[in-house]
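User: Okay, second chain of the day. Same drill as before: sequence in, C-alpha cells out.
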Amino acid sequence: NNNNNEKNKSSATNLQHANTLSGASSKFLAEEIRHMRDDPSLDKKTKTKKSKSTTIKEGEELMVMAPDGTTKKKKNAKEVDEVLDQGQRRLALRSVQRTTEDLLLISDALKTKEATLGSLPTRLGKGLELIKDNITRIHRSEGLLSRKKVAMGRVNRYELLRGAFGGGEDGRSEKGESEAGEDLYAKFTPRKLKVKSKKKLIVMAILTGIALVLLCCTTVFVKQYEEDYVLLVAPALSHEIVELHEHAEISKKHISHASKGMMEVKMGASECHAHHTTDVPVYYLHSQIRQGDVVLAALADIQLHDLGSSDDPTGAHRGGEEEEEEEGVNHNNNSGGYRRALLSASAGGPGPSVEKMSYTILSKYKKSNGDVYITVSTNCPENVSVRATIRDVGLVGIGQQWIALVLLIGVFGLIIVEVIHRTLVAFLGAAAVLYVLALEHRFPSVAKIIQWMDHETLALLWGMMVIVALLARSGVFEFLSVRLIELSRCDMWRLTWMLMLFDCILSAFLDNVTTMLLLAPVIISLCKALKIDPRPLLLPLALFGNIGGAATMIGDPPNIIVGNALKEYIDFNDFLQIMAPGVVLTVPVVLVFVRWHYGKEFYSQKLVVDLEKMKRDYPIRDMPLLIRSGIVLCFVIVLFFLHPVIHFSPSYAALFGAIAVLLTGPEHDFEHALEKVEWDSLLFFAGLFVFTEGVAELGLLREISDALSALIEMVPVEKRSQVAIVLVQIVAAVASAFVDNIPFTTTMLPVIVQIAENVEGVHIKGLGWALCFGADFGGMGTLIGASANIVMAGIAHEAGFHVTFGQFFKIGFPAMWISLVISVCYLCMMEGAGALK
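Assistant: Same drill. C-alpha cells below.
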C-alpha cells in the first residue's frame, strides 16, 4: 500500500504539468481509480462481467462467449445504424449532456482525494463544465422545429389510444418525482434498421415502378373530356306541349358524352318574370335527358323565383318590372345574347336565381339509339333562361360518394393513429381522389390542382413561421416567463393564472405548438427545482393555449383557414370583435374549474426557487435579433388591423414581413429561418386542400350539407340561424376532439358554405364563427385533439412525467364542454342581437 501511495503521488505530480486533460492516459486514470477502491477483488468481478458480454461478429452470425468458455452461434439479420434526423441528434446530445453531469459528480467525489491525485479532479471538473456549457449553447440555438419533432416523437397517438381503450394505463404515469428523468438520457443507442437483401429490394422497386406507370397511364386508358356547358331557354307554358319539336332550336341541347352510368347535371335558372296566382301558385322548371323518343331520366323539378303574388302591387322580386324596363331587357327576345345576359355575371346579367344538382343513372341508354339531349320546359307564362353543366362520370360514378366516404374515413383514421406521417397521409388521400376522378373521365389539370390549394393560407403560415422562428431564437419568451415567476411573489396560484393568461395572449398571435415549446421547458425547470410534479401546470397550459388561439385570425390554423376562405365576409378585426370577447368570457370560468380540479392544496403552497439562477439560465440571447424581428412583427400586426381600410391581404403582410426580417439580418439568419420552417406542415395543408376539393368533386360534401340542411329546415325560419350555429359548433367540437382540427376544418368549410346558400334564414358569418369556436375548443377535449397537446405530452415525457390519455381526458373533456356552453350561449346572443348578419 505504501508503494502504491508513493506511485500515486509521483504520477499526480507528473499530471500537474500536462496541458490538457487528454494528456493523461485513460489507462493510467483507470488504474488510479481502481487503486482507490477498498476491495481489490472488484478487478476480478469486472473482468468476469466483461467476459460474459464479449461478442465476436463473424459474417452474418454472432459468436456469443458463454461463462464456461464455449461459444454459441446466434443468427443475426443484417442491420445498420439509422441515419440520425434532427430529433435523434438532439437525443444524442442530451445523452452526452447527461453523461457529462454524471462525470461531474465523480469529479466532485474525486476532489476529496486531492492530496492523492493533485489537481486532476479540478482540471477534470473544468473540462466537463466546458463540455456541458457548449452542449447547453447548442440546445439554446436549436430551432422550434427540432424541439417539436423530439416532443412529438416521445408519444404516439396510436399508443395513447391503445393505452386508453385497450391496454390500460401505462405504469410510467405513477413514476415518483425523485425518479423522474434520472436515467432517461444516460445512454443513447441509435435505432437499428433491418437491411433487406438486394434481390428483394430490386423486385420491390420494379413492382413499385410498374404500379406507378400503370397509375399514371390511367388518363391514357380512360378517355378524359370536358363537361358540357349549355345555355338554352324553356319556352313559356311549354309544360303543356307534349311534343317539343315546335321549340326544338331553343328547348333542347345535344350532350356530347353519355354512357350507361351516372350523369351529373347542375341546372341554373333565371326568375319567372310573372306574378303567381291562386290557380298557379308555383312556377317550376322541368328537365329531361332523352335519347331520341326514349326518356332516359327525368330530373328533379326546380321551383322558380317569381315576382310575388298578383295581389301584391310591390312585388317580391328585388328588381321589379320598373328596373328591368329601365335596363331595356326584352323578355320575349330568345336570342343567345339575352340568355347570356340573364345567366352570366360577366355579361352583365344577375346570374341564375336558383341552382340545383341532380344525379341520375342512365340505365336505358343504348349507343345504337343515337344522340342524347337535355330538354327543358316550364309552366311560367314567360320564357325562362337555363344554364346547365352536364358530365358523364360513368359506372364508377354510381358509387362515387361511398368511395369518397371510405377515403375520408381512411385518411382521418390514419391521421388519428399516426401509423405514418400525416403529410404522407394527406398526399396519399389526394392521389387516391385524383385517381378516382381520372376513372370518371374528369382528371383535373395541374393548373386546376394548384388553384385548389389556398395560397393565402400557405403564405400566411410561411410568413408567420419565419418571423416566430427568429423571434423565439432571441429568447424573449423564456425571459418573460421568468419575469412572471418573479412577479408572482412565490405564490403558486398567482403564478398559475398569470402563466395561463400569458399563454392565452401568446397563443392569440403565435401558433399553439410554438407557445407550448417556449413555455413548457421553463415550467419544467421551475418544478424540478421545487421537486414537484409539473403536470398540474402543463395540462392547463395546453387547455389555455387552445382557448387563447381562438381569439384572433392568426392564433390557430382553423381560424386561418376560415378567415382566408371567407375573406369577403370576415377579416382580422372581425375576429377581435366577435371571437376575442368569447375567449375573455371563457378564460375565468375554466380557471375556476382548473383550481377546483387540482384542489386547494396544490395551489396554496409557497415557492422556494433560485430566481437568480433562472434569470441566468433564460436571458435575452440575441438583442439585435429581438429588436429587428419584434419591430417588424409589430408592423405586420398593424397591417392586419388596417385590412378593412387598405384591403391589403394579411397573407401578404406576413409574407413581406418575413422577407423584411430576413433582409435586415445577416446571412446565417436566412439559412436558420429556412431550416426552421415547418415544410412538412405546409405540404400537409397543401395535400389536404387537394384532398378536400377532390372529395367535394365526388359529391360527398354536398350530401353532408344536404342532410344538415334538411335537419335545420325542420325548425321555423326565424330560429334556423341559431340552431345551425349550435349544431355546427357541437359537431365541430366533438369531431375535433378525436380528429386533428386542421383536416376537419378544411372538410367542413365547404359544407357550411353550401348550408348558408341552401337554407333560408342562415348566414355564413354565424356558421363561420361557430366552426372556429368548435374546432378551436374541441382541440382540448382529448390528448390527441390538437398538436399542442401531443407536444406537451412529449415534453413532459422527456422530463420523466408521463401524461396518459385518461389523465388529460379528466380535465380536458369537461373544460371543452364548459367552453362550448359559454361560446354557444354567446354566439346565440350575438345572433339574436343581429351582430352576425
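The CA atoms of residues 828 and 834 lie 10 Å apart.

User: Thanks, on to the next one.
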